[in-house]
Amino acid sequence: MSHAISPLLLVGAIFIVVLLLLWLFLYFGSRWLSRRQQRLASAAQSDLAGMFIFTDAERIFVLNLVIAAVAPIVVWLLTGNLLLAGLAAALALAAPQLLLRIIGRRRLRRFEQQLPDALLMMAGSLRAGASLGMALDAVAAEAPPPVSQEFELLQRELRLGADFAVALGALERRVPLPDLTLVTAAMALSREVGANLAETLESLAKTLRARLQMEGKIRSLTAQGKMQGLVMSALPLLLIAVLNVMEPEAMAPLFHAWYGWVTMAVIVCTVGVGYHFIRKITAIDV
Fold first, then answer.
1. Measured between alpha carbons, how far is 239 from 74 in angstroms, rounded to an integer?
2. CA nearest 182: which of 277, 256, 116?
3. Residues 241-273 as b or e (16 or more Cβ within 10 Å = b)
4. Which is nearest to 208 in space by CA: 133, 147, 286, 138?
5. Which pLDDT tens digit goes with each residue over 214-253?
6. How many helices (DSSP H) and strands (DSSP E) are in the chain?
7. Segment 206-215 long-range contacts (CB within 8 Å, at least 24 positions apart)
8. Alpha carbon 259 to chain centroid distance?
9. 115: pLDDT strictly greater than 90
10. Which residues contact 1 (CB under 8 A, 6 or more apart)?
11. In contact, 236 and 271? CB cutoff 8 Å
């Protein structure tokens, strides 16, 4: 009887240990995921507030959690492939940070394009006899965002008693652009030594506008190379999708066998490295 019971006890013990390990994994994993998502949500809220987009961190956390939970389930139901479901989960977790970076880069690009006009507006106000504060108020009132938003915040900090150099430093941290660093340095120098700020701002505006025009010409000349890199990088993945539709049985090991997953990983890595070098070649800094 004891020989018949001992295997049952062993199986029961193994079952209990597996359940315990699974519970510990789910418990600590959920806590880690919750802390990570809350930390990312708080960081996202801070970054969005820096871009004058105000929202609730709890709403960002819930939205990200729902997308991270729903996306892999939908992909698995549509494809039946656990590898693609895992990739969907990873993309869903990384999507908020990528989206914030894209929004931040676009905002910086708009600020850079609007800065020469804002400098000419300030120079015109200074030549008309206005003070630097009045010139900043004119930019905050008449310029489009994001230039108007940043200069309005600069003026609010100055009205609250912040030092001029400290307020300019905060502006540089919010908008990390080399062009703006030149402008703030000129404004700080003019305030200290009494230089002709209007002429300095006009000269900077002309220089920045010429630089933007040169960058536009370079982007137009390199657009074909960038598009070719994008097409050549997407071509292998497109061929895989087409062959999977035409010959699903022949392509099945690529998606359902371990050596197929390794092959896919190698393909994705090599394509990504090639596209990265193409982007580096076509990215010309002025």
1. 23
2. 116
3. eeeeeeeeeebeebbeeeeebeebeeeeeebee
4. 286
5. 888 888 888 888 888 888 888 888 888 888 888 888 888 8
6. 10, 0
7. 206/116, 208/112, 208/115, 208/116, 208/119, 208/179, 209/116, 211/179, 211/286, 212/112, 212/113, 212/116, 214/286, 215/286
8. 33
9. yes
10. none
11. yes
Long-range residue pairs from 243-251, CB within 8 A, at least 24 positions apart, any chain: none
Is there a contact between 172 and 111 (Cβ–Cβ < 8 Å)? no
Residues 68, 89: Cα–Cα separation, whole Å = 6
pTM of the model: 0.72
How high is the pLDDT of residue 2? 47
Domain spans of the chain, in order of start: 2-106, 110-214, 222-282
Whether the predicted pLDDT of 55 surpasses 70: no
* Residue 52: pLDDT band with limits 50, 70, 90: low
51 pLDDT more than 70? no
Provide the b/e sequence for 50-65 (b: ≥16 CB within 10 Å): ebeeeeebeebbeebb
Tokens of 69: 């939970």
The CATH label, of 1.20.81, 2.60.60, 1.10.1760, 3.30.450, for the domain at 110-214 is 1.20.81
- The residue ranking higher by pLDDT, 94 or 131, is 131
State whether residue 135 is helix, strand or coil. Answer: helix
**Can you read off the two tokens belonging to residue 248?**
């699903």
Q: Percentage helix, strand, coil, to 5, in the chain?
A: 90, 0, 10
Instruction: Report the C-alpha gap between 240 and 238 in whole angstroms.
Output: 5
